[in-house]
User: Fold this.
Amino acid sequence: MSRIRALFLGTPDIARFCLEAMIKDPHFEVVGVVTQPDRPAGRKMQLQPSPVATLVEPLGIPILKPEKVSAPEVLAQIQALHAEVVVVVAFGQILKQSFLDLFPGKVVNVHASLLPRWRGAAPIQRALMNGDTETGVCLQVMVKKLDAGPVLGARKIPLPLEANAFDLYKQCEALGAQLIAVDLMDYLRGNLTAEPQDETQVTIAPKIEKSESEIDWSRDAMSIHNQVRGLVMGPVAQTRRGGKIVKIHKTWPQDSAGVASLRPGQVLSVSEKSLIVQCGKGSLELLELQPESRAKMPCGEYLRGYPVQAGDLFGPTVDNKP
Assistant:
């Protein structure tokens, strides 16, 4: 059985997962890998290879780490690998037309949304922050316009209220690998036709900005809960208490409407393991918190180290208790 010569472009853990599945798949021969250059990381800011590079380097597969994948000298190296198909998973660089022209119709991308919904850099986070009840993973044929290529296949994922970005990320890993193994192979065999996206249904998922992490307690409880679960992979939703930052990792919206006389951000009640905060509409139970310069902890542990009373305030400009 002849194997398909594949070039892989990717950088983070989701890309590593898909690449590892391709390496094990007898239908593919991974002839080269392109990933982002080593970047400073950790407390000492030492150069660290990407998760994809960490997987590939011991295996002897040719690997490139260009600052610009579309640079002429890099394109020449890629062309010399004689790949038949290119698989892109969270690579982190824009692919120019000069790259796409090397493999007409054979550059495919795993994207973590149900396109055309949530085109862009942060589809996982945006789906959760928007309160979507369903999302998924798509395999698309890449074109120059961002995430606008025709779709080869999709896998749907329900989004219950308890799901957060970490949960969704893990599900996307497995489904992305499945799309490559099944739908891509069907496409390469001529058994599958790409379907154009409906441009009237496009929504955009821009990069997450750090400024989006600040909790506005005047918003309704459900939207704050969605903000928290969408940002758990970073930058993490945060508020302030006594002038110090408190990051919020896990919450649960309450059925109660709250107390009309209380201000948004004011503590409604405190139990041994949780506390409930008034929002602009409804109330929110805080379950995992992270004090400034400390690790995250269950709310019960936080309360033992940082006592909270009913009536205390969370928020950026309030004079609350430490």
Remarks:
- Residues 318-322 have pLDDT under 50 and may be disordered.
- The chain has two domains: 4-201, 210-305.
- DSSP finds eight helices and 15 strands in the chain.
